[in-house]
């Protein structure tokens, strides 16, 4: 991907994250995990502005990552380390954004969507929002503690810290916010990458292979199989395509062999030639001309 596009998406993700925090989390006093949650706690106990608290915390965590994990790791979080607190600081200057709703349920829903969307966009580009992602990675490197375990402990501790000064409603809505944001992150990180895989068993596999390559311009793989009832050895056709092209592929298979066995599955991600890499050849004729 073009580096400029990647950076723009990371910046956009941080901006959306900041919008969710500034417009809904902070005004309604919702609890939140990560570095933002610590910043909210620091703001409550010391009165230090949230953006300043995030600047200081992110800088400390960034330096920890730089010295322990190395420069390569630090480069994946430097944009978020600098840009996210800046977004919070700028958005704080617009009071209208902090008065969009007085309904805590709406705030929890919209903050969950925006926070999850923002983090998801950043993670999808192979970067990190930094913050509380860093200590678990350091603990794994130094002591072999699984990242998932220390991350859960850290997030639980941050939520508990805020629960000490939040009422029961704010805690419950905050938990809803955390739950929704996690769901959105999981969805965004694979959204747009999902593909459809077809496993086709038919005695007319050669005709199906030629048609999928020649007419649909799809890549296929032949898999050696043995039929269960007759014990006959033959080939099956394995094909991966976009969901929008699924109907056309099924129609072609149906025309060639109405009795073909077709197993269709949605898969989260596909990598390699034809998907994440450019295809060198569009059809077998071109392949033969160039060999």
TrEMBL record:
<dbReference type="Pfam" id="PF10035">
    <property type="entry name" value="DUF2179"/>
</dbReference>
<feature type="transmembrane region" description="Helical">
    <location>
        <begin position="143"/>
        <end position="165"/>
    </location>
</feature>
<feature type="transmembrane region" description="Helical">
    <location>
        <begin position="50"/>
        <end position="68"/>
    </location>
</feature>
<dbReference type="InterPro" id="IPR015867">
    <property type="entry name" value="N-reg_PII/ATP_PRibTrfase_C"/>
</dbReference>
<dbReference type="Pfam" id="PF02588">
    <property type="entry name" value="YitT_membrane"/>
</dbReference>
<dbReference type="GO" id="GO:0005886">
    <property type="term" value="C:plasma membrane"/>
</dbReference>
<keyword id="KW-1133">Transmembrane helix</keyword>
<feature type="transmembrane region" description="Helical">
    <location>
        <begin position="171"/>
        <end position="190"/>
    </location>
</feature>
<dbReference type="InterPro" id="IPR051461">
    <property type="entry name" value="UPF0750_membrane"/>
</dbReference>
<feature type="domain" description="DUF2179">
    <location>
        <begin position="219"/>
        <end position="272"/>
    </location>
</feature>
<keyword id="KW-0472">Membrane</keyword>
<keyword id="KW-1003">Cell membrane</keyword>
<protein>
    <submittedName>
        <fullName>YitT family protein</fullName>
    </submittedName>
</protein>
<feature type="transmembrane region" description="Helical">
    <location>
        <begin position="73"/>
        <end position="91"/>
    </location>
</feature>
<keyword id="KW-0812">Transmembrane</keyword>
<feature type="transmembrane region" description="Helical">
    <location>
        <begin position="106"/>
        <end position="123"/>
    </location>
</feature>
<feature type="transmembrane region" description="Helical">
    <location>
        <begin position="7"/>
        <end position="30"/>
    </location>
</feature>
<dbReference type="InterPro" id="IPR019264">
    <property type="entry name" value="DUF2179"/>
</dbReference>
<dbReference type="InterPro" id="IPR003740">
    <property type="entry name" value="YitT"/>
</dbReference>
């Amino acid at each position: 991907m073009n580096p400029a596009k990647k950076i723009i998406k990371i910046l956009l993700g941080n901006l959306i994250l900041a919008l969710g925090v500034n417009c809904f989390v902070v005004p309604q006093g919702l609890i939140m995990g990560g570095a933002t949650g610590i910043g909210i706690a620091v703001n409550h106990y010391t009165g230090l502005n949230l953006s300043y608290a995030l600047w200081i915390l992110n800088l400390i965590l960034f330096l920890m990552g730089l010295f322990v994990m190395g420069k390569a790791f630090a480069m994946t979080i430097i944009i978020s380390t600098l840009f996210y607190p800046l977004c919070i600081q700028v958005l704080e200057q617009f009071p209208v954004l902090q008065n969009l709703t007085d309904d805590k349920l709406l705030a929890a829903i919209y903050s969950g969507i925006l926070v999850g969307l923002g983090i998801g966009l950043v993670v999808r580009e192979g970067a990190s929002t930094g913050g509380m992602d860093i200590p678990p990675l350091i603990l794994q490197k130094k002591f072999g503690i699984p990242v998932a375990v220390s991350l859960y402990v850290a997030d639980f501790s941050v939520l508990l810290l805020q629960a000490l000064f939040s009422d029961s409603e704010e805690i419950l809505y905050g938990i809803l916010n955390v739950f929704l944001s996690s769901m959105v992150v999981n969805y965004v990180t694979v959204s747009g990458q999902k593909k459809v895989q077809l496993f086709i068993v038919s005695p007319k596999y050669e005709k199906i292979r030629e048609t999928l390559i020649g007419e649909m311009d799809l890549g296929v793989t032949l898999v050696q199989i043995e039929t269960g009832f007759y014990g006959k050895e033959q080939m099956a056709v394995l094909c991966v395509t976009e969901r929008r092209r699924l109907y056309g592929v099924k129609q072609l298979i149906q025309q060639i062999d109405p009795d073909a066995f077709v197993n269709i599955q949605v898969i989260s991600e596909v990598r390699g030639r034809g998907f994440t890499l450019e295809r060198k050849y569009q059809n077998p004729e071109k392949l033969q001309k160039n060999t």
